[in-house]
Amino acid sequence: MCDARLFWHQIIAFSADRAVITVPLHGTTIEEMASAVLAVAPPRFALIGHWLGGLVAMEILRRVPERVSEIALLNVSPLAEPPAVAAQREPRIIRARTGRLDEVMLEEVPETALAPGAGRPEVQAMLLEMADALGPETFTQQSRALMRRPDQQRALRATRVRAVLICGEYDTICPPRRHEILAELMPQAEFRLILGAGHLCPLEQPVKVSRALRDWFEAPR
Questions:
Q1: For residues 219 and 64, what is the distance between their CA atoms, to the nearest angstrom?
Q2: How far apart are CA 33 and CA 56, in angstroms?
Q3: What is the pLDDT of residues 35-46, one digit of tens each?
Q4: Mean per-residue pLDDT for 5-29?
Q5: Alpha-carbon distance 105 to 85, whole Å?
Q6: Cα(124)–Cα(94) distance, rounded to whole angstroms?
Q7: Is the separation of the CB atoms in 181 and 167 below 8 Å?
Q8: Under 8 Å CB-to-CB from 74, ≥6 apart: which residues?
Q9: Which of 33, 72, 73, 107 is the most buried (most CB within 10 A)?
Q10: Are 135 and 20 in contact (CB under 8 A)?
Q11: Domains in the chain, please, with CATH?
């Protein structure tokens, strides 16, 4: 439930020397979303995805690895949806569609998944603004895509594309240890921990995330 504002700092930081494209995630499955991204993507590109966007990025990498020059995955998990988590989604969809989207979003990304401190309310406010702009229909589509998402571990183990896994230290939705394991799983991957950030690290620590991405982009191959 994020739009381009999630990556506002990275868009500004990289647009001086790179073409930057952000793509909305529409569709009821990860596969449909990946097809929509590929329809507007250039022939070859570096790919950055956060959480649901990261799942779509994994599907693109599995499907057309030759088009991906390098990939950055932020606050992600390659695992299929656990049944206990999936069971919570339909009741949340009903509440979101009956005017309680703000309440549901604060359950989807609770304050405990964000870094503590004075900046947390501002990050939560931005999350609610983005969710309100996208609306309950997009929430429904994205929730069902998460429920049906495939396990991507086998595809990631087989990839030879250069990758970086980025996670905030306070992320309880996709914890840092999961990213470390994923970096060990992927042959050409490394892990970067963002201090002072949680699940929404591009908003919580935008400068640190941009610096980590640039250092990784510019590192010797």
A1: 24
A2: 6
A3: 999 999 999 999
A4: 95
A5: 15
A6: 22
A7: no
A8: 48, 49, 50, 51, 54, 166, 167, 201, 202, 209
A9: 73
A10: no
A11: 1-221 (3.40.50.1820)
